[in-house]
Amino acid sequence: MTIVGSGDAFGSGGRFQTCIAVGAQTLVDCGATSLTALRQQSREPNEIRTVVLTHLHGDHFGGLPFLILDGQFRRRTEDLTIVGPPGTEDRLKAAMETLYPGSSEVRRRFDVHVLEHTDRRPQRLDDLTVTPYEVRHASGAPAYAVRVQTPDRSIAYSGDTEWTDALLDAADGVDLFLCEGYSPTPIRWHLDLATLAERRDRFNCQELVLTHLSPTALAADLTDWTVAYDGLRL
Q1: How far apart are CA 44 and CA 170, in angstroms?
Q2: Which H, E and C letters describe 157-217, residue by residue?
Q3: Does residue 50 fall inside a structural domain?
């Protein structure tokens, strides 16, 4: 797994928005800066077959119009599957029409398939199994933590959320839990370091890594945590 983008919505610390590569063909979230980040790290966007979304804020899904149009202009032929919250297809179409009017109706050499999460119901996508866990984050549609199982590894990602015990279920027994650590102290709709520290021993995962940190979190004492950065390979 590669942390292509580890930043918050505003590029704090000069970091790209959320984008996590699982192998060469899968992304978990695709923030608006993701195409730039993929190219900076010499990753081929046309190799991506699946994008798993946690929620529908621009710093987590706003790179999809660019990923799709880049594939169109560079003669991509392999289909792209997007798995996201209910409403993903409509939100994606609206985003494409806002950014590039007419772009959502163009016939391409590849199809874009949109599937929806159902809380705690696994979906099998080739050699991946994706399980969503509904969390607490206002984004105009349900928000999820996601668990991704490959044939030999398992990872979970919190997405953006206040504390909820659903995170314990998402991270249960995984090799790696990538967890938002947005603020040093409690803030609505996001995870904070104080709350995580209090509950840290409740997680049953092999490794926990923080991501999506605000400027105040980046400036805090993080010596007791492992913190993601752009390009980190795990």
Answers
A1: 29
A2: ECCCCCCCCHHHHHHCCCCEEEEECCECCCECCECEHHHHHHHHHHCCCCCEEEECCCHHH
A3: yes
Neighbours of 98 (CB within 10 A): 11
Q: What is the pTM of this model?
A: 0.97
Question: d(Cα 181, Cα 149) in Å, to the nearest integer?
Answer: 23
pLDDT at 173: 97
What the block records as the tokens of 229 is: 């950065």
- Dihedral of CA 221/226/230/231: which sign? positive
User: How confident is the model at residue 193, as a pLDDT?
Assistant: 98
The sign one gets for the Cα dihedral 137, 142, 148, 154 is positive
Q: How many CB atoms lie within 10 A of CB 118?
A: 14
- Residue 190 DSSP one-character state: B
Split into its structural domains, the chain has a count of 1
Return the bridge partners of 192, or none: 183
Q: Tell me the C-alpha distance between 184 and 178, whole Å.
A: 17
Which residues lie closer than 8 Å to 9 by C-beta, 6 or more apart? 17, 31, 57, 58, 59
- Mean pLDDT over residues 114-141, rounded? 97
Q: What is the pLDDT of residues 59-104, one digit of tens each?
A: 999 999 999 999 999 999 999 999 999 999 999 999 999 999 999 9
Distance CA 233, CA 80 (A): 24
162 belongs to a structural domain: yes
Whichever domain contains 34, its CATH number is 3.60.15.10
pLDDT number for residue 15: 98
Residue 234 placed within a domain: no
* 232 is a domain residue: no
**Structure confidence at residue 137 (pLDDT):** 98
How far is it between the farthest Cα atoms of the chain? 52
